[in-house]
Each structure stands twice: as structure tokens, then as C-alpha cells.
Write a structure and sequence with these properties.
Among the domains are: 101 residues, Alpha-Beta Plaits; 37 residues. The chain has 4 helices and 5 strands. The longest helix is centred in the C-terminal third of the chain and has 43 residues. A 3-stranded antiparallel sheet has the order 2-3-5, with no helix packed on it. The protein has a two-stranded antiparallel sheet with strand order 1-4. It has 211 residues and is α+β, with helices and mostly antiparallel strands. The radius of gyration is 37 Å and the shape is elongated. The N and C termini lie far apart (110 Å).
């Protein structure tokens, strides 16, 4: 008796599901159809701004990007689509600075997960919606995103050079003062220890008689 009841119950639920599906099919059947004349109407096509087509670096009006070559996007990419090549350059204050040399992006293996965009600390990456990226060879899918020539950093003014030199001399003087203070504190501590050791030593005749 229970099996018959279960049979009719499942049959009823199946019919309800079928009716719901046919309602959706019927609604789409009477909906007016729109035909896109591509590529003739390429200039009038509406592509969603959230569509992820290809990764690119953000350049400002002066031709500069925000990438600092930290490598977070390369490490977060799940299938090795991104590859960064960096270089070390000398700054005006005599320090070393890492800079981007080549940003390689393989569109053919990209999963468009957007982990690189969401994890970039400088907001230097974005996906555009240019979907026309078809090529005839896989090699052409590997793109260099930093396609603009790298601009040289402007030379510091004499005032900036003087300020950098003054800061450098101040740091050196502070380091020397700290080293001397540490050395003096160590010598003072050693002198105190020696004085305490001398004060703790007493002659044998001054010791109390055991009797």
C-alpha cells in the first residue's frame, strides 16, 4: 500500500514539475525574437560592462600604470596565466627599487576568475569587455600588458638632493649615537658588576668564627 502511495506521489510531483517547465517554454515561445546582425552592427552592439573579456593594466592620462611588481596577482592566479619579470633600479636617494619589466598574460589559459583584479593592492588591473579576441595561433594569445614604453623618473632637484643628503647624514649620526650609547651602557654595567664583586669579597679574618 505504501509503495502505491509513493508511486502516485512521485507521479504528481513530476507532473507539477513538467507543467512549470512548459510554462517557461511557452513564455519564451511567444516572446519576440531579436536577431543581432554581427558584425554589421558591431558599433551598435550592447555588451555588458561586467563582461570579462581580457585583462589589462590601467594607464592614466600621462601613460603611467600603478603596478609595483609585487607579484600578488601572479601567485593568486590558479593556472599560471600571469607571469611577471621585474628589475631592480637605483633611486635618487641611493636605495634599490623593484620595477616592472614585463607583464605577460596568456588569454588562452585564463579562467576569468578575477582573483588577480580583486587581490591587487594598487588597483592596477581590470577586465575590459572587448570580446573580439579571436586569433589564428595560440602564440598570439600571449600578450604583454605593459605595452607602453617605461618613462624615466625625473631627476631630483638640488633642493631634493640636499634634503636626501641631510636625511642620510642624520640617520648615520643617529646610528652612531645609538651605538655609542649602547657601548657606554655596557661599560657602565660591567663597572657596576665589578664593583659588586669586589664588595662581596671579604678577608678570611673578617669571617665569623665557626666556634
Amino acid at each position: 500500500m505504501g509503495s502505491v502511495k509513493d508511486y502516485f506521489s512521485s507521479l504528481g510531483s513530476g507532473l507539477v514539475s513538467l507543467i512549470k517547465g512548459m510554462q517557461v517554454t511557452g513564455k519564451e515561445f511567444v516572446t519576440p525574437k531579436i536577431t543581432e546582425r554581427y558584425p554589421e552592427d558591431r558599433d551598435h552592439m550592447h555588451v555588458s560592462p561586467r563582461f570579462r573579456a581580457i585583462l589589462r593594466l590601467k594607464y592614466d592620462a600621462e601613460g603611467n600604470h600603478k603596478c609595483i611588481a609585487c607579484g600578488i596577482c601572479e601567485r593568486n592566479c590558479p593556472n599560471g596565466t600571469i607571469s611577471l619579470t621585474t628589475k631592480m633600479v637605483d633611486t635618487a636617494d641611493g636605495k634599490k627599487k623593484r620595477k616592472l619589466d614585463k607583464y605577460s598574460y596568456d588569454l588562452g589559459s585564463c579562467t576569468f576568475c578575477q582573483l588577480c583584479v580583486s587581490s591587487c593592492p594598487q588597483d592596477a588591473l581590470e577586465f575590459n569587455n572587448d570580446f573580439e579576441q579571436a586569433v589564428f595561433t595560440r602564440e598570439k594569445l600571449v600578450k604583454k600588458l605593459n605595452y607602453l614604453p617605461e618613462k624615466e623618473e625625473p631627476a631630483p632637484s638640488p633642493e631634493e638632493l640636499a634634503r636626501i643628503q641631510a636625511e642620510r647624514e642624520a640617520k648615520i649620526a643617529a646610528a652612531k649615537a645609538a651605538a655609542e650609547a649602547k657601548k657606554a651602557a655596557a661599560a657602565q654595567a660591567k663597572a657596576i658588576d665589578q664593583a659588586e664583586e669586589k664588595a662581596g669579597e671579604k678577608p678570611a679574618e673578617d669571617l665569623p668564627n665557626a666556634e
